[in-house]
Design brief:
The chain is α/β, with parallel strands linked by helices. It has two domains: 1-35; 38-146, Sandwich (Immunoglobulin-like). Helices cover 23% and strands 39% of the residues. The chain has one helix spanning 2-35, and strands spanning 38-39, 48-55, 58-60, 63-67, 72-78, 85-91, 96-102, 107-112, 118-123, 140-146. Strands 1-4-10-9 form a four-stranded mixed β-sheet, covered by helices on one side. It has a four-stranded mixed β-sheet with strand order 3-2-5-8, with no helix packed on it. The chain is globular. Bound molecules: copper (II) ion.
């Protein structure tokens, strides 16, 4: 009976330590995702431009911040040799309809003008046979459209 008490005690202690460790770690992960967000710089000609590195299986950066009603031009640079990818960003409400192949080792650009404030997901929609989709493997990002100041 005494030993059972001790085990219960140990378990409670471990849970407490877990809580103490997990809390701050969880916050750190969330703020790391926030700090990854990149404000797409505005060029002198009024276009917001940025280069995105397309790899297997990631977009870098994967969190973009742009202003509404201002053209955006993203240059998609593939650094892969075998696996083709694409860049798909569709939102009827925001007036964005982009579906662009990104050939292996190639560079291509997409251009659109977001008409609505919000967060919009972009993905690679490729999927090979029974393997997990590229999106499931990490090829996903967020375009955050903010109001004009
Ligand atoms: Cu892909």
């Amino acid at each position: 009976m005494k030993s059972i008490m001790r085990i219960t005690h140990l378990k409670a202690g471990a849970a407490l330590i877990g809580l103490m460790l997990f809390g701050p770690l969880h916050q750190a992960a969330a703020s790391a995702a926030e700090s990854r967000a990149v404000v797409v710089p505005l060029s002198a000609d009024g276009v917001q431009r940025l280069e995105i590195t397309v790899d297997s299986y990631s977009f870098t950066p994967d969190r973009l911040i742009v202003k509404e009603n201002t053209p955006v031009e993203l240059t998609l640079k593939s650094v892969t040799w075998i696996v083709p990818h694409n860049f798909v960003l569709k939102s009827l409400e925001a007036g964005i309809d982009v579906e662009q192949e990104v050939p292996t080792g190639g560079t291509t650009a997409v251009r659109f003008t977001p008409r609505r404030v919000g967060k919009f997901k972009f993905v690679c929609t490729k999927k090979l046979l029974f393997f997990p989709s590229h999106e499931d493997q990490g090829m996903v990002g967020i375009l955050e459209v903010r109001k004009q100041p």
